[in-house]
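Running low. Got one?
___
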Amino acid sequence: MKSILYFRIFSLIFLITATTSTAQELTAHPNIPRIDVHSHIGQDEQGIANYLLVRERLKELHNVDLAMWINLGNGKTPFPDQDLVLKAGQGRILSCISDYSSHDGFDIDPGELKSWMQKGYVGYKIWAGPPHRRLKEGEEGYPYIDHPALDPTFAAMEKIGMVAASIHIADPNGPWGKRTKWLPDPVEYWKEILAFRHVLERHPDLTFIVAHCMWAICQDAQIDYLRNVLGTFPNVHVDLAATFQYFDLVTRENLRSFMIEYADRILFGADIGRWSDPAQNENYAKRYFRCFQILETDQTINGSFFGDAPIEGLALPEDVLEKIYFKNAMRLYPAVAEQMKSITR
């Protein structure tokens, strides 16, 4: 009799534990679609198929609706074939023209930008990070984004309403003792940041979505500078791509307050790239879900999309999550709004 009782108690405990564990792995916001505005798929059809399978796994495992991606190319020309990507991605991937050689001068004549918009490209991705990552020592070029030779392109974009899509300005520079491997020199970091500010001052009507929160999110003082930029330039927005791995370097309350205060100006992104092995699909689904948990819960999450540092969740309000996950992307990218309507009919 006792053995039967013990067995029933054990079974009940197991059931409760399993149910609790499962519940913790489901999003509390299944009705909020997510749009990743910062992906690097290029036009690899196998890679696109894997993206769609990751979407399926997120739905199966976590009840998450990862609805769309914006494709920023893969760092090489030619630009992604918009029609190919749109078809292979079942309407869930829209592409930008992209330029990863701005230190050598932009690839496209400013007068041709409008024709690229007419082809369906939703923005212009520009990489203008640390010059030492593109120019060899002693090599001549345009080290900073405010170089006069680059200005006609920004003027043309401003005139025709082309979005500067996830423009990359600097690399991470952390606090003293944790400078990060990417850009350990704070003097060089601020040269790049301030050069971009000159561009903002010259082009107040150009919509900027700045990649990686402008990399002004690795120190509490940087977040205050980011507040200054967003408070000064209403045309500036930021994406969260690859930033989650550095959230442990800043004060949780400061970061949470910033995201709530500027919820209208922040977009979700992961900086996801390409992979060929479908066996990795579940791994990428888990990476995405860790980022969602950081934004949605107050749990301590071990790792994010990149890195394995424990991050205390921000538990953002639902209306803030809606803006970050999809509403801001639909407002800033009209083509995204149209496509979202199309794929949800």
Observations:
- The CA atoms of residues 127 and 168 lie 5 Å apart.
- The chain has eleven helices and eleven strands.
- The radius of gyration is 21 Å.
